[in-house]
Write a structure and sequence with these properties.
This protein is an all-alpha fold and 199 residues long. Helices cover 78% and strands 0% of the residues. Helix 2 packs antiparallel against helix 6, helix 2 runs parallel beside helix 7 and helix 4 packs antiparallel against helix 7. The longest helix has 31 residues. The radius of gyration is 21 Å and the shape is elongated.
């Protein structure tokens, strides 16, 4: 009996490749590093002004924050479904899932604008105190990421509508867009407990 172990197939090697464009992860990790600096600075200031941060946090509800968290999680799930559909050549399903993710992103933006309006009208604007300065900076920069994410979702929709052109490069572009959208979700998963739940 031979003890020779068969090597991995080419399909297995392809599955182990890092998804997305070659320079994508440099950008993603760089972006995350900037947010880590923001998060660390927030925690340091919170430790120095604990009562102020607690009182400011308790001055408004968390309902919109919770809803937005659920919305982004759903959008990420829809993007995963879309990628699976593209790989299975079920492009109409992929397009519908991506439009659903885009709808979720739009809903997130609308709810965030409603929250901003309520906070400002209550006198809790960006310059009202240190907590709200961080609140508007962190959520505002994240909101910009969501808006940029609309472009990535639009690119994915365009690619998914052209099944005959889904070459390796097109699939790599789709994977890059997916990774960016997951970054948007991941950043919010950190921002939400820091700003809304940390007691």
């Amino acid at each position: 009996m031979s003890d020779t172990v068969a090597g991995p197939s080419s399909d297995m090697l392809q599955q182990r490749e890092i998804p997305g464009e070659p320079g994508l992860w440099v950008f993603l990790f760089g972006d995350m590093a900037i947010f880590v600096v923001f998060f660390a600075s927030y925690l340091v200031e919170r430790a120095d002004h604990r009562l102020l941060f607690q009182a400011s946090r308790q001055s408004f509800g968390v309902t919109i924050g919770v809803i937005n968290t659920i919305i982004l999680l759903i959008s990420s799930l829809l993007v995963v479904i879309a990628v699976s559909a593209v790989r299975g050549r079920a492009n109409p399903i992929a397009v519908r899932a991506l439009w659903g993710a885009l709808f979720c992103g739009g809903t997130f933006v609308i709810l965030k604008c409603v929250e901003y309006t309520h906070l400002v009208s209550a006198g809790n604007g960006p310059g009202s105190n240190l907590y709200f300065t961080y609140f508007f900076i962190l959520t505002g920069v994240h909101l910009i990421h969501v808006l940029i994410g609309f472009v990535t979702l639009g690119i994915m929709i365009a690619k998914a509508r052209q099944p005959r052109e889904l070459t390796g490069q097109n699939l790599s572009t789709i994977q890059s867009c997916v990774c960016y959208w997951h970054l948007v979700d991941l950043l919010w998963i950190v921002i939400f407990p820091l700003l809304y739940l940390l007691g």
